[in-house]
Amino acid sequence: MTKVIIIGGGVIGLSTSLYLAKAGYDIIILEKYKPGSQASKKNAGLIVPSMYIPYPISIDYIKLLKWIFSPSSPIKIAPTKLGYKTIKSILMSRKYLIENQEWRILRRLGREAINSIKNLMNFIDMDIEASTGKILEVYINEEAFREAEEYAVELKNDGIDTDILSGSELREIEPRLSKHIIGGLRYKIDMSINPVKYIDGLTKLARTYGVKIIERTSAQKIIVKNKYPVVYTEKGERFSGEYVVVAAGPWTSSLLNPLGIDLPVYPAKGYIMELSNFNGNNLTHQLMIEEEKVVVNPFKEFIRIAGIMDLMGFDNKIPYNRLEIIMNCVNKYVPILKKHKIIGIDSGFRPCTPDEIPIIGPLPNHPRLLIAVGHCRFGLTFSALTAKFIYEYIEKHIQIPRILQPTRFKNIFR
Ligand SMILES: Cc1cc2nc3c(=O)[nH]c(=O)nc-3n(C[C@H](O)[C@H](O)[C@H](O)COP(=O)(O)OP(=O)(O)OC[C@H]3O[C@@H](n4cnc5c(N)ncnc54)[C@H](O)[C@@H]3O)c2cc1C
């Protein structure tokens, strides 16, 4: 049996383990804490290929200054913590993304991304609260709504259907929306799941397929010996296999640094707030408040509000003024939620790349050392598709699309 070591038991590592284990591979996952304990459980639960548009496309210098200097902006940048080199790469990738439309491949693969997740979901024997076509993107600002309408036309050209709805049509579907909402979009193919239950389901399923998940074990060093990668843990254990897949989220760069590889992956902190669900006040749809970069997702046991983005390194503080932005935004769009009690607050680090395109595939010169990282705001969305790419590369030697491969970055070797 071909042995594969996966570093990181987030949604990417778990999904990859399942695609490989189902095909008969012998899989070990090394996980620093518990499966999914980082961003993979702390997200909004949306599977939204239709919303995929890399955020650097919308960054110009004015926006950048706003994100640096305005404390109330939904995206916040601390240049000293993010690093000037990263800021420069983000600005440079904007130009590239606009000129070269290769990033669209991911959005065009949207249905495949959803089908790959459904493929895994079918084997999970618990209710993960999956729903399709119930995501409403809602707008109060007229100009932003016009841009959304244009986006719906762009999506149609990519083969993705969305409904454009007026404020009253939206309130008919979701009566608890504020009267100030003037319109929005309904994404028809996109899905929502409870990410906590999904991760628990994937973990259980992986174990059923014989995947060995070694918790509380941190990979510390990777070396490549006669083309075969070997992983050493901080406890000094040694793991080797025919392939190693690094899916360690935003911690991947520091793991690869000793190999002389400078992979541009950095953390982008997001926040989650959970509200109690009391009788009769439940929302029936997921709400995307794009103007404020906040999602409201009503699960069975609680309502999760997730969003905004702080590009300021691994700082896990939860400042009150950032939570206030989320609460004010929600009160503006769904005032009834003011009455719900806050029962939980947390934060998670999205693994981002300067072009917001994930990095998937073998490292140059190390064909057996694969990377599956950098999905930023779309990790859940493209998790099973990533797993499928890795599986097809290992099993059938099918090339991963060029734009996703690590080789798209020049100078990753120091
Ligand atoms: C607030 C918020 C909302 C979001 N909403 C959505 C959404 O609605 N839809 C969507 O598609 N995406 C969403 N995302 C993004 C998504 O959650 C992430 O892209 C995704 O979880 C990344 O998964 P991952 O497996 O790459 O990383 P992680 O979840 O970070 O997993 C990496 C794992 O590797 C482990 N690890 C790290 N270093 C080591 C080591 N040295 N040895 C062993 N293990 C190690 C970590 O403990 C961790 O468990 C959101 C994120 C946030 C924060």
Q: What would you say this structure looks like, in words?
A:
With 414 residues, the protein is of the alpha/beta class. It has 2 domains: 3-42 and 197-261 and 355-408, 3-Layer(bba) Sandwich (FAD/NAD(P)-binding domain), CATH 3.50.50.60; 51-101 and 124-189 and 266-352, D-Amino Acid Oxidase, subunit A, domain 2 (D-Amino Acid Oxidase, Chain A, domain 2), CATH 3.30.9.10. 31% of the residues lie in helices and 27% in strands. Helix 1 packs parallel to helix 9 (195-208), helix 1 (11-22) crosses helix 12 (383-396) and helix 6 crosses helix 12. The mean pLDDT is 95. The structure holds flavin-adenine dinucleotide. The site of flavin-adenine dinucleotide (FAD) has 44 residues, from helix 1, strand 15, strand 18 and strand 19.
List keywords for this structure.
alpha/beta, FAD/NAD(P)-binding domain, 414 residues, nine-stranded mixed β-sheet, globular, 12 helices, binds flavin-adenine dinucleotide, six-stranded mixed β-sheet, 2 domains
